Amino acid sequence: MNHPMDTILSLALLSILFSFGSSRLPGLIKVLAFQGVVVSIVPLFAGHHLSTGGVVFTLATLMIRGVAIPLCIYLVIKKVAIAREVEPIVSHMGSN
To answer: How many structural domains does the chain have?
Structure first.
């Protein structure tokens, strides 16, 4: 039987593959936010019983890694007016 944590971490790895072919910063920021959320919820599926402090720490990590950091980066690139800055690692022909 497939453990839920394996599925969650597989989604994080697939998002890395998506980021290799992306050249838009807003898309990369969304991938960063997704990865932050995915990695932050892993302790909830680890099978261990979390104490109240552990749950609070997990939720705080989720808010910081999944919301606050990507939001700050997004606001900065909007203020500087950057739309396309990153050259993709994989070419468009290679990603097809």
So the answer is: 1
User: Residue 23: inside a domain, yes or no?
Assistant: yes
Residues in Cβ contact with 2 at an 8 Å cutoff, skipping those fewer than 6 apart: none
Does position 16 have pLDDT exceeding 60, yes or no?
yes
User: Range of 28's domain?
Assistant: 4-80
Q: 66 by DSSP, 3-state: which?
A: helix
The pLDDT tens digits for 25-83 are 888 889 999 999 998 988 888 877 888 998 899 999 999 999 999 999 999 988 887 76
Rounded to 10°, the helix 25-41/4-20 angle is: 160
Query: Does the residue 93 lie in any domain?
Result: no
**In angstroms, rounded to a whole number, what is the distance separating the alpha carbons of residues 80 and 12?**
29
| Best-predicted range by mean pLDDT (18-22, 23-27, 71-75, 91-95) | 71-75
